[in-house]
C-alpha cells in the first residue's frame, strides 16, 4: 500500500513544506522564545492536529464541498483570514507574543488552542492537503481513505515534531533576548506582520473550479 520509494518522496516533500516559513511555525517559535519548551510543543501539537483535521475533512469530502460552494468557501475564508489578522494585530499592538514577563504568559490551554485554530481556521492547509495527498494515493494499492488518513497522519506528526524541535531550540535563546529587548520587539513586529500577511493572502484566495 505504501511503496518505500513513494513514501520516501512523500516524506521529503512534507519536510520541505513543514520547514517553509509560515504562521504556524512562527507561532511555535514565538511560544518557545517567550514561554519555553512546553508551550512550543503544545502549539506544535495543535498545528499537527489541525493538519489531521484537514486530512479527515478531505477524506470525507468536506473540503470538496467547501471548494465547490461559493458561500461555504467565502465563510471559511473570511473566518480564517480574520483570525490570522487578529493574531497579527495582537502581536503588533500588545507586543506580548514574545514576552518574558510572567504576567504576559498565556495559559497552556490557550497556547494549544491558538496553535490548533490558526491551522483549522486557515483554508490554505485544507486546500493544500486536498491537492497534495491524492498525488500519492492510488486505488490499485488498497483503500483510498486509509491511504489518505495515513499520509495525513505522517504529515501531521512531522509538523508537530519539527515545530516542537524548532520551538525547543528557540527557547534556549530566551536568555539572550531578555538581555536585548529590542530584538524581542523586532520579533513581535515580524511575527505580527507575518500573521497579517498570511491573513491577507487567505482573504485574497479565489475559488477554483
SSE arrangement:
Elements: H1 4-19, H2 23-35, H3 37-60, H4 62-68, H5 70-94, H6 108-120, H7 123-132, H8 144-171, H9 174-179, H10 181-203
Poorly predicted spans: none
Dominant shape:
globular
* SSE pattern, N- to C-terminal: HHHHHHHHHH
Determine the N-to-C terminus distance: 30 Å
Give the class from helix and strand content and strand pairing.
mainly alpha
Largest sheet: none
Our count of helices gives 10
Indicate the proportion of strand residues.
Answer: under 5%
Number of strands: 0
Mean pLDDT: 82
Oligomer: single chain
Descriptive notes:
By secondary structure, the chain is an all-alpha fold. It has one domain (25-96, 125-203). Helix content is 79%, strand content 0%. It contains ten helices and no strands. Helix 3 (37-60) packs parallel to helix 6 (108-120) and helix 5 runs antiparallel to helix 10. The longest helix has 28 residues, at 144-171. The model has no long low-confidence stretch (mean pLDDT 82).
In short:
The protein has 209 residues and is mainly alpha-helical. It contains 10 helices and no strands.
Key descriptive features of the protein:
about 210 residues, mainly alpha, about 0% strand, globular
Amino acid at each position: 500500500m505504501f511503496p518505500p520509494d513513494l513514501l520516501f518522496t512523500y516524506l521529503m516533500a512534507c519536510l520541505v513544506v513543514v520547514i517553509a516559513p509560515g504562521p504556524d511555525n512562527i507561532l511555535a517559535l514565538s511560544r518557545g522564545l517567550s514561554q519555553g519548551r512546553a508551550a512550543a510543543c503544545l502549539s506544535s501539537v495543535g498545528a499537527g492536529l489541525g493538519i489531521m483535521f484537514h486530512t479527515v475533512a478531505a477524506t470525507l469530502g468536506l473540503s470538496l464541498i467547501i471548494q465547490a460552494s461559493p458561500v461555504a468557501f467565502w465563510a471559511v475564508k473570511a473566518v480564517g483570514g480574520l483570525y490570522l489578522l487578529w493574531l497579527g494585530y495582537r502581536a503588533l499592538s500588545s507586543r506580548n507574543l514574545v514576552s518574558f514577563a510572567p504576567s504576559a504568559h498565556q495559559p497552556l490551554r490557550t497556547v494549544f488552542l491558538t496553535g490548533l485554530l490558526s491551522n483549522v481556521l486557515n483554508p490554505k492547509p485544507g486546500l493544500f492537503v486536498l491537492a497534495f495527498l491524492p498525488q500519492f494515493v492510488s486505488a490499485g494499492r488498497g483503500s483510498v481513505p486509509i491511504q489518505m488518513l495515513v499520509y495525513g497522519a505522517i504529515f501531521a506528526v512531522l509538523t508537530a515534531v519539527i515545530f516542537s524541535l524548532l520551538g525547543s531550540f528557540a527557547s534556549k535563546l530566551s536568555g539572550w533576548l531578555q538581555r536585548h529587548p529590542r530584538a524581542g520587539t523586532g520579533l513581535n513586529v515580524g511575527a505580527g506582520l507575518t500573521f497579517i500577511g498570511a491573513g491577507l493572502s487567505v482573504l485574497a484566495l479565489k475559488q477554483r473550479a
